[in-house]
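U., I forgot to send this yesterday:
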Amino acid sequence: MSETERLTLAGVTDLVRHGKRLAMVTAYDAASAALADAAGLDIVLVGDSAAMTILGHASTLPVTMDEMLMLTRAVTRGVRRAFVVADMPFGAYQPGEDEALRNAIRFVKEAGADAVKLEGAGRTLTRISAILDAGIPVMGHVGLTPQSASLAGSYKARGRTAAEARRIFDEARALERTGCFAVVLEAIPARVAARITDTLKIPTIGIGAGASCDGQVLVWHDLLGLTRGHVPRFVKRYANLSQTMLDALQRYASDVRSAAFPDDTHTYGMPPEELARFEAQIGDSRVDQDFTKPLRKP
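Result:
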């Protein structure tokens, strides 16, 4: 596959079959998606984490279908190679199979997504089946599922008891049997994730699930150091862009207030004869006015 050829579902599967680990990251706009694409990321997830990272909510629950569609359209405009997966937000598939199918179709038809992601198993399996029957690839998600975290009472790691680990194991197998092409394992013990990965024939993508998964995913703002405040223990920060951006904004504000910006290199000129005509037209004889200095109104 060439560097400019769009990665397909078969291509994603082939990467894992040939021993390559999948690198996946969230993105929410065209510029970020283009950077992820240029960096060679295999999968870009338009995560419902946008509710928190972009829209300022305290959880993922408030983000709407219309908002997710807008973000997904932006991401697909920025991507040339990566496989794009759209998170189906809370309320987009829980009501039933018809609603789930209708919204999945919108992600593909209106926003250009290659696949959708749903959280959980149980009743979600029938929603997944309906979407798959329409020919839309589905990525599953078990372990810590943020959309149902309030029901569980916390965002803590899951699967730390034998019973809960077995439930997650069984859910992952059910997602595979239903037809998911991959499954995200979030915030579960590494040994549990390793057993799931060894058992499934489809790829596993970990986030806080250890190094044995077939791939890894992190939230854009977390890995680039844009998240202010607490981040989960499984996050590795590869940059501190928050501080870099803060420093730049402070320098900009200082330059504006001291009139150090803009200088001659940031301004446009005009031919002297045109300036003279302009001044004559407005009846102002101050042709020699130094426009590099701010005007002082009386």
